[in-house]
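dude i think i finally got it to work??
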Amino acid sequence: MQSHIGISGTSPDSLPTRRRFLGRLGAGGLLAGMPGLAAGIFAGCSGELPPLPGQFSKRGPIRVGLLHSQTGSLALNENPVRDAETLAIEEINAAGGLLGRPVEIVCPDTKSRTDLYPKRARNLLVDNNAAALFGGWTSDGRKAILPLLEEFNRLLFFPLAYEGNESHHNVIYGGLLPNQQVLPAIDWLLSPAEGSRTKVFLIGSDLIYSRTANFVARKYLQSKGMQVMGEIYVPLGSRDFEAIVAQIRDSGCDCILSTITGDSNLGFYPELAAIGNDPRQRPVVATSVGENSLQSFLPEDVAGHFTARSYFQGLRSPVNERWVETFRAEFGYDRVLSDSMEPGYSLVHLWANAVRKCRALDADSVRQALADVEFAGPAGPLRIDPRTQHCAKRFRIGRVTNNREFEVIHESDSTIPPDPYPQFAFPGWSCDWTKDGLTRGVEVQFDR
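look at this
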């Protein structure tokens, strides 16, 4: 079941109530049981027959697709990103839309299932003729739709931190790469400020992201003289960690690098606390735990552990403080904002700036315009590196407080340039989309 969030024709006074309604109930779960309400509230079709795929009408709303899991194990993380993207589009419409037209959202539910990504993406690109796609979460899902992006020559704006080892002509990457997240986290663990830790246990979800990020981490750890004391992968959605945590305890590690994603973290941290693990002696540094995740934990299960991100809600800047205030006014003052939401929000505005510059919707024109625009996002200015189609990002470490918030205790001196192919891990690979595109090196195999 897909939902249409029609922005056109909606009075400004009605938007806050509708946004809160969507944000709290979730489009997928709400509309599946209330199809009549879906037609009445969320439809915004112009009545015009759709143009052929690859062509864009010059009349009526501009449709974009939000590709997110609104149910299943990933919904905890993805629904907030969907809300952040929705806010950005409604801000664009409040400022007059794009090319004199409103922007309309189509938001199907991928249900935390990789096999549904191509089906939902095809629906967005063919049946809805979406000008661009925003979202996704797992790399398995992203890779599953790459052939469709090529076939229809559309852009996906992907907001998540991911494993690198990829640069696709039809993807704009807004999240952290390992050289901007995992490697700086290792350097920080090795520093005297964090106790010069040298014995690392790697744990992650059984996904492309975790396996590839840990491959890069192992290579880097070896170059730093640090030891990998163990490496374990758990099925997505699993919460059975008793035996795994016992293995971590018995390994002799002095820190844990976690790439667990989704609600599996709700099983991992409580089990770690149950064995009496002291974060001062054996901290977890996570890559996928944000403010939204923290709200589901007891404070004593997570306080003292760390997350490596680029954005934290508590960043002190006028842009961020205004964003937090605006989001909460629209979606509820009990809501929190996290790292994956920030690039989701900022990428939508960056796309809009590119459309305004080139005055077109096709992927080639927008891609070229992206090289010359930026957006002043809550984490700092966001700009695309046209060679890699990734972003320079600032690295930050947040420590979980007893109030289930993050205290930023470390950040890089400046933004870190993107490197999707660190040569110590992927020799011979490189990309430059302003010249010859992708250069292939030695094929790297990963166990799945």
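The two ends are 31 Å apart (CA to CA).
im so relieved honestly
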